[in-house]
Amino acid sequence: MEKKRWIAAGAALVIFVVLMVVTPKIPQAEEYHDFADQRKLFFGIPNTLNVISNIPFFFVGIVGLVLCYWRNYFQLSLQGELVGWTLFYLGVAAVAFGSSYYHLNPNDATLVWDRLPMTVAFTSIMAIFIIERVDEKKGTISLLPLFLAGVLSIMYWRYFDDLRPYAVVQFVPCIVIPIMAIIIPPMYTHSSYWLWAAGFYLLAKVAEAIDKPIYKWTHQIVSGHTLKHLFAAMVPVFLTLMLAKRTIELDRRSLLTKWKIYMVEVKERKFKSNSTETNLDVEYTAVSTTTE
């Protein structure tokens, strides 16, 4: 098992190096900073809605951080869990400041402070998932390397104007975590909340991609980027609800297995229902024939 893990880690590193060699450089486009909604709605705040729509991150981050330590409300028992969730909620709360600072004056220099706290959140949540689903010790050890990888990916982008490492840090957890949530048996209940969180993050990326069309469709009421912030803030909301509700999973079956069992049960119920209807039809026909 240990050998397989080292092989998997080595394979991942080789794939990353190969991708860096064979794929073209991805520079930060200047158009990225040209958001649809640039209005000063009140107090002279530029890009007002894009700035204030970051406020939910602060409140969710602070609430989550407090509950991590208040009477062990989340019942974090595994080694590294408390550190991982602390880093996650610190990252979430810091997004409110970093993203607001960026949207006051959108450019590459301020974008660093927008992406840095998000990277802390991405990498810590990946480590948490490894702790819960793969291996407690290795997940705990991975907290620091993943955090450093995230910081280095931003530094690499800033100094070499190449987004490839940052794209890996951002999108790999978004792909791997939902897959792992489906196929790997959970330690805790309410595992489906991971999928709700992933779904809202996907909505956030879609809204970000169609920033200007959404602004046009809503008759310049709200832009896609503002909605992106609100959808993204729902990710820590659902993860906080998950932490508050979950307990130790006694029946450790993956979501995929549960879905398969559910589908079999649905088919069995449908088959029994059809069989009952057929029997009733036969009995009705027999009664009718006897009567005649």
UniProtKB/TrEMBL annotation:
Record localization: Membrane
Alphabetic keyword roster: Hydrolase, Membrane, Transmembrane, Transmembrane helix
Transmembrane segments: 48-70, 82-104, 141-160, 166-184, 230-248
Matches recorded under InterPro entries: ACER (IPR008901)
Pfam families: Ceramidase
Membrane topology annotation: Multi-pass membrane protein
Transmembrane in keyword set: yes
GO BP terms: ceramide metabolic process
UniProt cross-references to PANTHER family, sorted A to Z: OS01G0962200 PROTEIN
Record-stated family: Belongs to the alkaline ceramidase family.
Name of the protein in its database record: Ceramidase
